[in-house]
Amino acid sequence: MVLVINGDPVAQGRPKFTVRGGRVWAYDPQKSREYKEYVKMLAMQWWGRKPPMEGALSMSVKVFVPIPSSFSKKDRQDANSGMKRPVGKPDLENFCKGATDALEGVVFKNDSQIVAHHEPFGKWYGDRPRIEIEFKEI
Question: What global pTM score does this model have?
Answer without folding.
Answer: 0.87
